[in-house]
Write a structure and sequence with these properties.
With about 325 residues, the protein is of the alpha+beta class. About 35% of the residues lie in helices and about 30% in strands. The radius of gyration is 20 Å and the shape is globular.
Length: about 325
């Protein structure tokens, strides 16, 4: 067995790498959200000013039996590397994961990164967390992975609508943010990065500029339909937003950010914003049968909103970090 770096423009090698990722997720996580092969290709082959990916494979003969994904942020958090290690179920407990971790660690240290962080998900088997801890990492933040079956019953939807805020206009867009809203949207995205719980993760909140948002929109459009709902007060000020990703060719939706700006809280905007994105999915994307989201267990306001919708917890996500 040897470790090699995957040529990001070798489609066959990328496909073999992705097959390992998909097989491990299918085995370990009944409700896991995997990326499509096309999404992986777009993620690693489209040049970015903000991020550099590195893919590693553990090879036995002609077969990839384990993978590692290493990534470097180029504009911020330049002390960090992202790192995740995956091994095929039939090849575990043979030191392959350790070998991948050691190789990736040598690479990120050579790149001047003094810390690595990653995400792992626990259903019943604590093995992934035990492996991370054996490598010297610790869990520094946890979130519930929540799942909502779609569509919601009409009676339940009507009950939610009666609870939602009515004194803000809900503005929606898909794909590109309107030019007249981009500055306010960037400010809210920056606020979200500052407010989102990260536990003890050694991470600096990223400032989202209009230029960075535009770059992200172009890249994401290759693999996702992006849906945003924003709450606008009568004076034109945006008070919050909700961001949803719809992976191309899949049957699920991914609820990402939902933020209400501090001075606008107390109006049930979180509920109204989530309803606004749900209504678009229900009417324009009826093929979506599952809605995924992730929420800090201690975020009582958002947990209450998710429970009101009918979300249920299916996994516990751990953010883990190791420091030199």
């Amino acid at each position: 067995m040897h470790i090699r770096e995957i040529d990001l423009h070798d489609e066959a090698a990328l496909k073999a790498w992705h097959d390992v990722e998909a097989a491990a997720m299918s085995y370990d996580r009944p409700h896991g959200v995997g990326r499509s092969f096309d999404a992986l290709v777009n993620q690693v082959t489209v040049a970015s000013d903000y991020y550099q990916p590195v893919l590693l494979g553990a090879v036995e003969g002609e077969r990839i039996v384990g993978i590692a994904e290493l990534g470097y942020s180029l504009m911020d958090n330049t002390h960090l590397a992202d790192l995740e290690v995956t091994v095929l179920p039939d090849s575990r407990r043979r030191g392959i994961g350790r070998s991948l971790y050691a190789d990736a660690t040598a690479r990120r240290r050579a790149a001047g990164r003094t810390s690595a962080c990653g995400e792992l998900n626990v259903v019943d088997d604590l093995g992934p967390l035990a492996f991370a801890e054996a490598m010297g990492a610790e869990s520094v933040h946890e979130e519930d992975h929540l799942l909502l079956d779609l569509p919601m019953h009409p009676d339940h939807l009507r009950r939610l609508e009666t609870r939602a805020a009515s004194d803000y206009e809900i503005v929606r867009w898909q794909g590109r943010c309107p030019d007249d809203l981009i500055d306010a949207y960037a400010a809210m995205r920056t606020q979200m990065n500052q407010d989102v719980p990260t536990g003890e993760l050694d991470y600096e909140a990223v400032v989202m500029t209009p230029e960075r948002i535009r770059s992200g929109e172009e890249r994401l459009a290759k693999s996702y339909d992006v849906l945003v709902a924003a709450a606008r007060r009568s004076d034109g000020v945006l008070g919050g937003y909700s961001l949803v990703y719809l992976p191309h060719g899949r049957d699920h939706a991914l609820q990402d950010d939902t933020l209400v700006m501090p001075e606008h809280r107390g109006h049930r905007l979180g509920l109204a914003l989530k309803l606004a994105t749900y209504e678009v999915i229900a009417t324009e994307h009826p093929e979506r049968t599952r809605f995924h989201t992730w929420t800090d267990p201690d975020n009582r306001a958002m947990q209450a909103t998710n429970i009101a919708f009918g979300y249920r917890a299916v996994e516990r996500m751990h953010e883990v970090q190791v420091k030199d």
